[in-house]
Amino acid sequence: MNVFGSQTGAVPKALRHRTAQQHRTAQQQRTAQQQRKTKQQPTSFRFERRIATGALAEATRSLAVLLEARISLVQALHTVELQLGHRRLQDVFRVVRLDVESGKSLSRALGVHSNVFPPLYVQLVHAGERAGILGQLLSRLAAYLEKAHAIRRRIQSALAYPVLVLAVAVAATAFLLVVIVPTFADMYRDYGAELPGPTRLLLQASSVLTSHFWLLFALIVGSALGLRRAARLPSVRPALDRLALRLPIAGPLVRISHTARFARMLGTMLQNRVPLLDALAILGSSSSFTPLIATVKAVERAVERGVGVSAPMASNGLLTPMIVQMIAVGEESGELDDMLLHVAEHQESELDQRTNALLSLLEPILILTIGVLLGGILVALYLPLFDLSQVVG
Q1: Geometric angle at alpha carbon 136, from 132 and 141, rounded to 5°
Q2: What residue segments make up the domains of the chain, in order of their start?
Q3: What's residue 165's pLDDT?
Q4: Which residue from 38, 181, 279, 330 has the fewest beta carbons nearer than 10 Å?
Q5: How many whole angstroms separate alpha carbon 290 and alpha carbon 238?
Q6: What phi-psi label fits residue 118: left (phi over 0), alpha (psi between -120 and 50 degrees) or beta?
Q7: pLDDT of residue 34
Q8: What is the pLDDT of residue 357?
Q9: Cβ proximity of 351 and 253 under 8 Å
Q10: At what angle do helices 237-246 and 290-305 cross, to 10 degrees?
Q11: What is residue 17's predicted lDDT score, i.e. its pLDDT?
Q12: Using an 8 Å Cβ cutoff, are 324 and 251 in contact?
């Protein structure tokens, strides 16, 4: 897909004006639609809770298959509604079908449920309606959702074991300090002799934990909720995002993850004939990662000025030089969408490799740390008994 229509990467003047005009028109349409929604009560209702990507991908795949089999849209929506096992998503499709039956377009009916169908989804459906290839485009959209769901599942599966090990370690440590150690404390109180330093420290920690358990629990939960709330503040979020990129081990994983998401979303939209400026606007509004938002805004301003997309990417610093060079090659060859999807595949593969390597290193470290922690508690607990046995002996 030739996004710019030039081998030099510069945007022709006529195409630039036409693209900018299309972007302004689309923005005006979205603004007018939002105003209409606020002025009148919609015929349908909103489902505020988000629905899992896997369930949405399954429904999208089923709808695409039915439409490609030349079944009417209303009948296809009704069939998907009946076969869905997800109750809330089934309710959503029922409302969407009723809206389509009343004369709304599918994209407009989907756009009412913004917490179920993201802007990318609605825009691609709208592009499919305009081009008359709704079934084909829904099939591509289903592939995109399935890919995103598979990546998320792999990361969750990889993190499940370390999280389980940490949970067991915390539970075992708390059990020892709250239940076992106080029993020994009563016995050592009648011991009479001076206890070893590690044992005194262990008994003090157990006393603090048992005496102020609920206070400490409330403090930990409150601190976690406060940090989570503070992380959403516009004045705090950019600093946290920059810190995440600088972390020694997690930083590269964060960068690769957001690069893959950026390339996958933008490439998918361009491949399905969404105008470049509209695609950038959707991408910017769909992300909460401030370095990615800054990159998208910089590219958007450059495109409006008639500059290629790769130059602002290089100056922003989020994308690596190799990724920027690959995108520049795709831009110059008129195959930017294909190159972006290739970049996404490359970054997703690298993310898998790095995650697996990190977890293979992390697992023995966790086991060793837990062994040392629990072993240290037990040794400190039994030290006075060892001393007593030596005196008796």
Answers
A1: 115
A2: 1-23+169-393
A3: 86
A4: 38
A5: 6
A6: beta
A7: 43
A8: 87
A9: yes
A10: 100
A11: 46
A12: no
- CATH architecture, domain defined by 1-23+169-393: Up-down Bundle (1.20)
The model's pLDDT over 82-106, given as tens digits with 9 standing for 90+, comes to 988 888 888 999 999 999 999 999 9
Distance between CA 327 and CA 318 in Å, rounded? 14
Instruction: Report the distance separating Cα 279 and Cα 331, nearest Å.
Output: 16
Residues of the chain with pLDDT under 70: 1-50, 191-193, 387-393
pLDDT at 43: 39
The 3-state secondary structure of the chain, one letter per residue = CCCCCCCCCCCCHHHHHHHHHHHHHHHHHHHHHHHHHHHCCCCCCCCCCCCCHHHHHHHHHHHHHHHHCCCCHHHHHHHHHHHCCCHHHHHHHHHHHHHHHCCCCHHHHHHCCCCCCCHHHHHHHHHHHHHCCHHHHHHHHHHHHHHHHHHHHHHHHHHHHHHHHHHHHHHHHHHHHHHHHHHHHHHHHCCCCCCCHHHHHHHHHHHHHHHCHHHHHHHHHHHHHHHHHHHCCCCCHHHHHHHHHHCCCHHHHHHHHHHHHHHHHHHHHHHCCCCHHHHHHHHHHHCCCHHHHHHHHHHHHHHHHCCCCHHHHHHHCCCCHHHHHHHHHHHHHCCHHHHHHHHHHHHHHHHHHHHHHHHHHHHHHHHHHHHHHHHHHHHHHHHHHHHHHHHHC
Burial of 127-145, coded b for 16+ CB within 10 Å and e otherwise, reads bbbeeebbbebbbbbbebb
* Token digits of residue 296: 């998208």
In terms of Cβ atoms closer than 10 Å to its own Cβ (0-12, 13-18, 19+), residue 237 is middle
Confidence at residue 389, expressed as pLDDT on a 0 to 100 scale: 58
User: Which two three-digit tokens encode residue 161?
Assistant: 């074991």
Q: How far is CA 19 from the centre of its chain?
A: 30
The whole-number pLDDT of residue 1 equals 45
**Residue 262 corresponds to which tokens in the numbers above?**
């950026």
CA–CA distance, 299 with 319 (Å, rounded to integer):
12
Query: Do 57 and 145 touch, CB atoms closer than 8 A?
Result: yes
The tokens for 382 are 């039994």
